[in-house]
Amino acid sequence: AQSVTQLDSQVPVFEEAPVELRCNYSSSVSVYLFWYVQYPNQGLQLLLKYLSGSTLVESINGFEAEFNKSQTSFHLRKPSVHISDTAEYFCAVSTGFQKLVFGTGTRLLVSP
Amino acid sequence: GAGVSQSPSNKVTEKGKDVELRCDPISGHTALYWYRQSLGQGLEFLIYFQGNSAPDKSGLPSDRFSAERTGGSVSTLTIQRTQQEDSAVYLCASSRGGTDTQYFGPGTRLTVL
Question: pLDDT at position A40, please?
């Protein structure tokens, strides 16, 4: 079985500061990794995903994540956050192209 | 094209009643998923459909929960004899299958009094 750990339930940060949201996974087989974002009162949206190839993946709004197989991690980073990045971020893992197993989420709070 | 739609958006029911939640996937998406989001349990997988078949229903929490999909399109999640612990947001997602992105609907917020 797979599992995902997001150790930080909440991350407060000031606008324009860098941020890292941590994600570690456990699996005995190869995995595909995802970050989803849930803005206040909205549904889940895919932010970025790692399927194969380059271990560094980027989103259109400046986030990036790096797949580290040896550390079983897929941390999400952004060099400079905006107020509009305030949201809950979920890391997820999949193996057989089927269900996603989600972490418990990290609430990113960006203040001016 | 429209995204995944779910109805109703909110449902309040009394303990012991049955409820039906509906999901309309993106047109052409063969795979459909149900998840549940609750404060205590986070985001949990319930069931996966490929076409009209459900090869993985391992996440259904009890036999009070069932789901079906007809015509390779609309899906209905039914909860019989609802309990207070069933209160949650029920999310539906669809994809073209394989490693294609799962697109989520806005969810149905179920409150069991």
Answer: 87
Residue B110 pLDDT exceeds 60:
yes
The shortest C-alpha distance from B57 to chain A (Å) reads 10
pLDDT tens, position by position, A43-90? 899 999 998 888 888 898 899 999 998 999 999 999 999 999 999 999
Q: Strands A106-111, A10-14: parallel, antiparallel or unpaired by DSSP?
A: parallel
What SS3 class is residue B39?
Answer: coil
Does residue B9 belong to the interface with chain A, where contact is any CB pair within 8 Å?
Answer: no
Residue A97: per-residue pLDDT: 63
Nearest to B91 among A44, A49, A101 (CB): A44
CB contact under 8 A, B48 and A98: yes
- Interchain pair A43, B101: CB under 8 A: no
The answer for B 31-90 residues in CB contact with A (under 8 A) is: 31, 33, 35, 42-45, 48, 55-56, 59
Sorted by sequence, the CB contacts under 8 Å of residue A96 that are 6+ apart come out as: none
Cα(A39)–Cα(A57) distance, rounded to whole angstroms? 21
Distances (CA, A) of B4 to A91, B23, B93: 21, 7, 7
Structure-block tokens of residue A83: 């107020």
pLDDT value at residue B1: 55
Sign of CA dihedral A8, A10, A13, A19: positive
- Nearest Cα to A19, choosing from A41, A33, A35? A35
